[in-house]
Structures are given as C-alpha cells and as structure tokens.
Amino acid sequence: MTDAPAATGVPPDRTAPAAHPIAPLLASRWSPRSFLDREVPEEMLRRLLEAARWAPSCYNAQPWHYVIARRHREPEAFAALLGCLSSGNRTWCARAPVLMISVARMDFPQNGSPNRHAWHDLGAASTLLALEAAALGLQAHQMAGFDAAKARAACAVPEGYEPVAAIALGHPGSPDALAEPYRTRETSPRIRRPIEEFGFLGRWGEAL
Ligand SMILES: Cc1cc2nc3c(=O)[nH]c(=O)nc-3n(C[C@H](O)[C@H](O)[C@H](O)COP(=O)(O)O)c2cc1C
C-alpha cells in the first residue's frame, strides 16, 4: 500500500486525442489510478449496472455479473478484493472508493451449451459501465492483474462462472497523490495504433 496522501485536487485532462471525430463521451473515458476519497452513491452504482444491462450479447444470454465492494460500506469485502489484486494494482487501488470483479457465466442459460462469447459480451457490458461512469463524472479502471482463484473464493463465485476482470471505480483525483511510477503514468500520453493498422477493407491487410 502507498503512503501517499489521499487524492485531492483536479484530475488531469485525459480526453482522448482522437485522430477522427468521436462522440465526446467516448473521448472522456480513461483509466485513472488516483481517486478522490469520495463515496459513490448507491444510485450511481445502479445506473452503472443499468448501463451494463443494455449491452448486446450472443443469444441475449447476458452472461455478465459484478461483485461490488465499497471501501467505506463493505470494508471486509473491499479488503478481500484488494487482496486478490496483483501487488502493483493493490498499491493504487487501496484508495479507490469502489472495487469490483466482473464475472462471466460460461454456458447458455437456455440449453447449457458452452458460450464461446461470454467474455466478449461481459467486456461489452463493462465498456458500457465504464462509459456511464464517465458520463457521471466517475471513471472505471479495468484490470487483468488479479488472482482469479482467490477472487472466486473471496466472492463465493459458483462453478460455471469465471472471474474475468477487476475494476476500480470512483471520482478521479490528482496524480500528485500517487507514488512513482504511477504518478508519471497518470499523465503520460495516451497512445493508440492508427486505424489503418486494424481496420481493413475487403481482405486482411487492405487499409481503409
Ligand atoms: C482487460 C483489461 C485489463 C487491464 N489490466 C490492467 C491492470 O492489471 N493494471 C492496470 O493498471 N491497468 C490495466 N488495464 C488498463 C489499461 O492499461 C488501459 O485501458 C490502457 O492503457 C489504455 O488506457 P485508457 O483506458 O486510459 O485509455 C486493463 C484494461 C483492460 C481493458
């Protein structure tokens, strides 16, 4: 855990420097490590889950689930989730107001056959959750750096369901509250591959 003071002040402007115009909400989403010590009201959590709820999914199977722990309201569950994170993530997540894990149901409820797109659809739901967070002045930071077996035990996730990602959530704070190397990362340029590298016309490799 970090000895840095609780985050106050103004978060950096992390608006995506998009090469082509995109909806302002999309450009406003980013993944902070510094969060204000401000609770996220339950009504906001409901709105985040409602946004996730309206994601598209294969056969409308809706494989998404979230186990949520607020630092001040569910301190034991929060500590248990924190303990599942990789040591690097734990450093800055200790001050996040909310931690969660996303969990995918791995078969179709309709017939029990394997759902090959469960992780895909959970990711879509988490993206909508993150965008709704941005619309509310919050930000969500998704993480692969956690121990899924530990999270399964900590959150009593049943068989047939897979913990997929951890998510830290809250109002973003000042990078000054972070220890290095996280402080520098919080303000380093946001980089993306150009669209020509991944968007093809007609056949693989033919740039748009
Ligand atoms: C599935 C997934 C796993 C990630 N894992 C981590 C992680 O373990 N630790 C971390 O600091 N960031 C993690 N990130 C955040 C990415 O590093 C971040 O989204 C990327 O650098 C782009 O930055 P942006 O979200 O601010 O645009 C993860 C993001 C996703 C979607």
From TrEMBL:
GO terms for molecular function: oxidoreductase activity. Gene3D superfamilies: NADH Oxidase. The keyword Oxidoreductase applies. Residues 27-82, 89-171 form the Nitroreductase domain. The keyword Oxidoreductase applies. Keywords: Oxidoreductase. It comes from the Bacteria. CDD domains: TdsD-like. Belongs to the nitroreductase family. This is Nitroreductase domain-containing protein.
